Amino acid sequence: ASLALEGQIGVHGLSAGDFTSLEEAAESAHRKLWELRGSGALGFWSLPDDAAIRDPALELGEELARRFENVVVLGIGGSSLGAKAVISALGDRFGDLLPRSRRSGARVFFPDNSDPATFTALLERLDLGSTCFLVITKSGSTAETLSQLLVVRERLGSSKLIQQTVAITDPEEGPLRRIVREEGWRSLPIPPSVGGRFSVLTAAGLVPIAAAGVDARSLCKGAAEMRERCEAPSLRKNPAYLLGGIHRLFDRRGRNIHVLFPYADALRDVGDWFVQLWAESLGKSETVGPTPLRAVGATDQHSLLQLLAQGPQDKLVSFIGVEEPATDLEIPRAWTEHEAFAYLGGKTLGRLLDAERQGTAAALAEGGRPSVTIRLPRVDARSVGELLFLWEAATAFAGFLYGVDPFNQPGVEASKQLTQALLGRPGSEAHAKRLAARPSP
Ligand code: PA5
């Protein structure tokens, strides 16, 4: 069956009646979400129009865009992936190749990982004098981020560090906040009620996004519009509940590998953001927990698709189709005596890409493989804001359908503690002892 659902969402492989089995669980998940919201613990929900958070972040980001050639984000996970996804979706494509006068903002880099080869290469190639470092860490204690900061401090010297660094961290707690207070750094807060992977519309995401010259106000507007739609209590009318619900329904049928498959290069990094959001929020029980994957069309038709089309029946694909590409390119007519060229001439690359998506969805459906389709009118700030909020709300709702707390990440914390123990952080002695008792792999 092919079903057009609320707004931009459609699904192959479900009928309207299938949702009945989910209604009771959906009502209970809705109640839990609204209780959390009422208690102020669902911080991400109010972000799209929270001017007290948005405006200082945008002012700072815009100032950095004027003052600096480069902005380097020192942050990892939720403190990097959201801004990276938005900037690669909406920033100037290959803008780094343009001279400053033709760019709309600073060049923003996300070294993200603590891989020494990447970080060394980046620092050696940048003109550090015209570079701002944004240290983004909610806890203020993440080893990867703080190590990068220590390297930067040594390269810049401590007085330049204060002039060229901004901290984005918890408003009160954490080691980075203490340095900020002691040394008088510029800083903005990440509200304690907003989890790292839900923080793209806090200063953690908005400062780098605005520094890149991206229209962050429209991004927030789009998110606010989607939030309004995600407030409907009914499963069938709420796009986030539908998206979360569809995934849970298919999961119950053994489809627990969830693939996000946008047909737009611009959304490639949204895939990475989704993987973190879905995995860290929902993967915390030995009996349930979907595995997220990301793909990009049409590229991954020549890689992952074989497995999706004929491999085990354990996957659900969510396509994202873009109705109107930002730029289209006509395919010229030539060699028309050859069929392989003739039918392409006169079409556009955008049309080809969309036909690839439709063809792939139809081929999967013919093979008895379901899929969801989210249609975006175009990849602009509003639609991307809508898309991000849609997945955030769907994740929160799905967490309660899966019976897990979508807002913690105890597995990530354990690995952080053991890493610190290995490096001899005081206070980690008990963890170090535990590690010493294990045979090394
Ligand atoms: O979503 C999360 O909470 C995590 O992925 C964090 O964002 C990540 O571990 C980085 O943490 P922090 O921002 O405290 O440095």
Descriptive report:
The protein has about 450 residues and is an alpha/beta fold. Helix content is about 45%, strand content about 10%. It contains 17 helices and eleven strands. It has helices at about 25-40, 50-65, 80-90, 115-125, 145-155, 160-165, 175-185, 205-210, 215-230, 240-250, 270-280, 305-310, 340, 350-365, 380-400, 410-420, 430-435, and strands at about 1-5, 10, 70-75, 105-110, 130-135, 165-170, 185-190, 255-260, 290-295, 315-320, 370-375. The strands form two sheets. It has a six-stranded mixed beta sheet, with helices on both faces. It has a five-stranded parallel beta sheet with strand order 4-3-5-6-7, with helices on both faces. The longest helix has 22 residues, at about 380-400. The chain is globular and about 65 Å long. It starts with a strand and ends in a 5-residue tail after the last helix. 5-phosphoarabinonic acid binds near residues 139 and 412.
